[in-house]
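seq:
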Amino acid sequence: MSKLERRDGNPVVKFFIYFVCIILAVLSIFPFVVMFINSTRSTFEIQQHAVSLIPSSHLLDNWKVFTGKSFNPTTGFLNSLIVAVGATALTVYFSTLTAYALVAYSWKLRGAMFTFILCVMMIPSQVTAIGFYQFMYRIHLTNNLLALILPAIYAPSSVFFFRQFMLASLPLELLDSARIDGSREFHTFNHIAMPIMKPAMATQGIFTFVYTWNNLFMPSILLTRDEVKTMPVMVSMLKGDIYKREYGAIYLGLALTVLPLFVVYFALSKYIIAGVALGGVKG
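struct:
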């Protein structure tokens, strides 16, 4: 028996590992628990005790405050869902397609193109915000959800992520065999490469969905009409004036904003776990 096996079989080591995992899990879940509980408390109760594990009875009052504003939360929820789903689908598919072109084909400027993608990835979005707004204004896409969905095709960080995954997991011999059998390039990509990329696509899908759903900067610039505003923009409008701020309604809005993120994570987590297990078997 190796030293590693003896170490893993030690009850003290196992207890310490489980203890640390439990502590980390509690620390990760605790902020969400406080957020959901504070959504049931009044502003006065939150100001008196910001952290509490006892739910209160002001959930309906907070809901009335949340729905009593000039905007419609249901509309904001649907707008955020449309933007997040559309942007995630475009980012995952076209980034995978771009990475596939960088890995599966050998062409003269492949290295230069990848270097260019890395350089673009280092440019903060805030630097290009003014030019991007002017471009959207000139093509009449302000106050239009397409202005937040279509640019998701451009995602250099996702391309880099998929390329690194393909280099380790995509066998080029399998692609050559498919071409010899008469498979067309898009058929090869869609039916051979993409199933192998499921763990990476699920991981990047979660990251993209969370980022797009929580994005406040660009929607607050491009969307000014209430009927096209997203959920984070509406939640930011709950702060009110300097004399009165409904913290209970703000926590309720945050709780409603977080719920879809849980659904997406639990729906795609099995693919991430399968990818980790596959990598462990290959290693």
